[in-house]
Structure to design on (256 residues):
């Protein structure tokens, strides 16, 4: 539908197909150990979610695309003592920009989370520190090139968790490079299978650095134009940069 912003001096739209969505939700949570302490402190709380998403351009079509989103959460504890002095609000800001050139696809994502220790997005946060307040920053650059009988994918990422003074937790950062080759079998046009490897480095204040290499088998399935599944099964080799430290090897799975 026209947005009223299609006309410009260059004869092209600055906001093609601009779409804005508003969201809201309510949740009830029971946490058996809200302080993540040796002596559990349980708490019951309500969470009220709200947000807005603005998108322009179609990522699966040639041309530029970008988007901005904000989501927030307000927490209400049934016993006011259970909040332990935490700010009751969580804030998430995100944005992306990219270009689809047909055979080459580039996308940059930037995320920020003001974590006040209430978050229920536990998949984003290490369990041991999810109740510690912090500023969390994420950057992810992905490049995909359509080649004969498949796609070559290259990704770079950086994540920083900057804890507030007094939390007693050291800041942590992660850097990774991901390389994958994906192909679509003729007998399964909605699926993509391939091989990949991820190289990562983790550093935490007061702790030795860790390097990891994870080769993996990957599978994706496109359920519809808006829904897809992704899975990877790999084997991680992790080394710790400290004399006498034990390196480790682990079978890892990721899906969503």
């Amino acid at each position: 539908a026209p947005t009223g912003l299609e006309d410009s001096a260059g004869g092209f739209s600055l906001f093609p197909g601009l779409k804005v969505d508003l969201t809201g939700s309510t949740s009830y949570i029971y946490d058996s150990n809200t302080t993540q302490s040796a002596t559990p402190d349980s708490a019951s709380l309500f969470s009220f979610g709200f947000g807005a998403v603005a998108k322009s351009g179609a990522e699966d079509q040639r041309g530029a695309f970008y988007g901005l989103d904000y989501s927030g959460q307000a927490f209400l504890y049934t016993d006011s003592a259970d909040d332990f002095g935490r700010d009751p609000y969580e804030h998430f800001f995100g944005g992306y920009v990219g270009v689809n050139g047909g055979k080459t696809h580039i996308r940059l994502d930037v995320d920020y989370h003001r974590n006040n220790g209430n978050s229920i997005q536990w998949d984003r946060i290490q369990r041991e520190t999810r109740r510690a307040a912090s500023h969390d920053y994420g950057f992810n650059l992905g490049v995909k090139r359509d080649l004969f009988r498949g796609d070559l994918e290259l990704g770079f990422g950086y994540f920083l968790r900057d804890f507030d003074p007094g939390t007693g937790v050291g800041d942590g950062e992660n850097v990774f490079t991901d390389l994958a080759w994906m192909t679509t079998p003729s007998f399964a046009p909605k699926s993509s299978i391939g091989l990949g490897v991820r190289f990562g480095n983790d550093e935490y204040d007061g702790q030795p650095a860790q390097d990891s290499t994870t080769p993996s088998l990957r599978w994706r399935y496109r359920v519809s134009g808006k829904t897809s599944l992704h899975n990877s099964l790999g084997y991680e080799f992790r080394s710790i940069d400290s004399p006498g430290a034990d390196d480790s090897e682990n079978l890892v799975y990721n899906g969503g």
Notes: The two ends are 32 Å apart (CA to CA). Confidence is low (pLDDT under 50) at residues 1-12. The first strand starts at residue 19 and ends at 31. DSSP finds no helices and twelve strands in the chain.
